[in-house]
Design brief:
By secondary structure, this protein is α/β, with parallel strands linked by helices. The chain is built from 13 helices and ten strands. The strands form two sheets. The protein has an eight-stranded mixed beta sheet with strand order 3-2-1-4-5-6-7-8, with helices on both faces. Strands 9-10 form a two-stranded antiparallel sheet.
Length: about 325
Amino acid sequence: MSTTTLEPTLEKAMKIEDTASYANNIKNVTVIGAGTMGNGICHVFAQCGYKVSMMDVSQDAMNRALATIAKNFDRQIAKQSITEADKEKAMANIATYTSMAESMSTADLVIEAATENIDLKIKIFKEIDTYAPEHCILATNTSSISITRISSQTKRMGKVIGMHFMNPVPVMKLIEVINGYATDKSTTNTIIDLSKMLGKVPCVVNDYPGFISNRILLPMINEAILSLQEGVAGVEEIDTIMKLGMAHPMGPLQLADFIGLDTCYSIMNVLHMGFGNQKYAPATLLANMVQAGFLGVKSGEGFYKHTPGSKELIVSERFSDKKWKI
């Protein structure tokens, strides 16, 4: 065979290798963080037959997460979407660890789902990079923080990617897949195929502040908070207009409570700093509520009062006066 014939063949083979998907090789998944997103991600992977290692510094947090996962499986059983045997099999796929090194010794994929804080995520990714096997893909569930900045703290920038699940994870179909500047095509293709294997719909975006989901959503929520702050309308009126007038299933202030006002505040700060544009500055009311500990569902009160087990929408007494403003 002549050299001129061989070289294009080798070049083509190398290109295929660069873009190949290895989703079928992923068997063991480590999830860092046992909060709302972390336990939801564990739920989905375990139900799909993957061996899941849940890692958190708090065993109590993981015990609560396991209880939540079991409760959510019970809801699926009640709807006859799974059986009791399916639940038992899925729960058996989940192991808990408080040691970072032990949790990912055999991992093919690690998904970080810790608090939306850049310093914390960088610290975690440095540890993941140290302990995860060389072939392992490192994903972050961040909803706004730069994938490129996170990946730059590792020695495998090509294997770092954003895998932004939506809440509640077992229900919501979307996964926003975010490419960092140096993310390899094979990493992207693997996560796209893996997302589909989970029964999800992947949408690929590039690495800019807030990506697509929160670049559009959070300024709308912030504008709703500013409207409340300025006394344009009350909580119930703002949410009703957006639900009935814009066909939103949930008003922006109710959604902010559900997301967590601390998370909303963090994302707005990422947008504000990332774009350097005053239009992304978080509302003063949002900042004050976060600093005072009124975080929404997770704290029991935000724009609404939240009672465990109740779905009734009750506006917080702090906003019951229609003319209220800061």
